[in-house]
Amino acid sequence: MNDLSVWELESFFAPTDIIIAGSGFVGLWSAWYLKKLEPKLSITILERGLIPTGASTRNAGFACFGSLTELISDADKMGEDKMLELVTMRYKGLRRINKLFSKKEIGFEHHGGYELIAEDPGADVNALDVNTPDINRLRSQIDRFNQLLKKTVKMQKTFRMVNQKIAEFGFTGIRHLIENTPEAQLHSGRLCQALLRLVQSMGVTVLNNIEITGYEKTGDHLRLHTNLPLSFTTSQLLVCTNAFARQLLPQLDILPARGQVLVTSPIEGLPFKGTFHYDEGFYYFRNLGNRVLLGGARNKAFEAEATEQMTTTTQIQDELERFLKEVILPGRNYTIDHRWSGIMGMGSEKMPIVQAVDKQICCAVRMSGMGVALAPIVGEKVARMMTGKDS
Prior knowledge:
The protein is of the alpha/beta class. The chain has 2 domains: 6-58 and 189-252 and 349-387, FAD/NAD(P)-binding domain, CATH 3.50.50; 108-184 and 255-346, D-Amino Acid Oxidase, subunit A, domain 2 (D-Amino Acid Oxidase, Chain A, domain 2), CATH 3.30.9. Helix content is 33%, strand content 26%. The protein has 13 helices and 18 strands. The strands form 3 sheets. Strands 1, 2, 8, 9, 10, 11, 17 and 18 form an 8-stranded mixed beta sheet that branches. Strands 5-6-4-13-14-15-12-16 form an 8-stranded mixed beta sheet, with helices on both faces. The protein has a two-stranded antiparallel sheet with strand order 3-7. β17 and β18 (361-365) form a beta hairpin. α2 (25-37) packs parallel to α13 (371-387), α3 (68-78) crosses α4 and α4 packs across α13. The longest helix is centred in the first third of the chain and has 21 residues, at 80-100. The chain is globular, with a radius of gyration of 22 Å.
């Protein structure tokens, strides 16, 4: 790498206005908005993996609005105003995705979402603030949140009780089922590819298998050191590596959280379509055609799952298989065809971190497992910040 040609030095490796660390959803949306706001900016994205590595292409493919008990929990922890701000960001982000890309291009399907409330009297006590999941108290929470969300989603009923569908869907051990109208599903890999094609068509350079290991300031520029015998020079650095951001910015309030997933073989006559949540969203599943994709259960081992190791574990996979067998697909025959994990960026609160670290370095990180929906909004916010157009 020491004997670069003049062509390489003056194109792929030339000094740039902005370098973005990370080619996941936030990095790509940020690049798109930066070029929309300032078309003449020279922008390079450096990605440490062969493809985006972290959560963007290793999630469950939820176009996630949020389940009722998750929003109740968020309101309790963050306050109603912050909860509504976060929900509004998700909703607007999903609308922007649909405005920019066709449903076919990104595998977008709108079958709605559902939340399963267990028969176990101890389940969801904290989320619902009741001693049992009583139907009257549950309906009052549905009414309350439908009223709170009216301005955000422009519909009369975001949530509604649909207990009649429990038997239709074939679930066992479930007392109540709550429908979530705005939620949908998409193909995360296709969305990443579509965004990648879009930003490259705008003149953004994307280089893979290059990890930024450190940086130093040289005058009014930054020199970025990498895992290769090669450095890059830029005027500004934007860190969009989410759970891995502390490798460059150790002061940030971010913790990694591994999300493990499995996918079944095709199931003849699969009785449901949509996205499904359970236990404040710690368990989540969806149909993938006529297969079932199931993920989560990290609340069974919080400490062990607070890791950057992108592997699966017997403990979590066994728990997912138990839930699949006992609740989702009782009496069905299937095999597990795929398993994987992705790393989410969490912290002491769920709001993303979008800030200027100093005059030359910004970050847009900590998506809290909601990167698909939040990335368009976060990308625009940080782009406006960096171009001085945030007023």
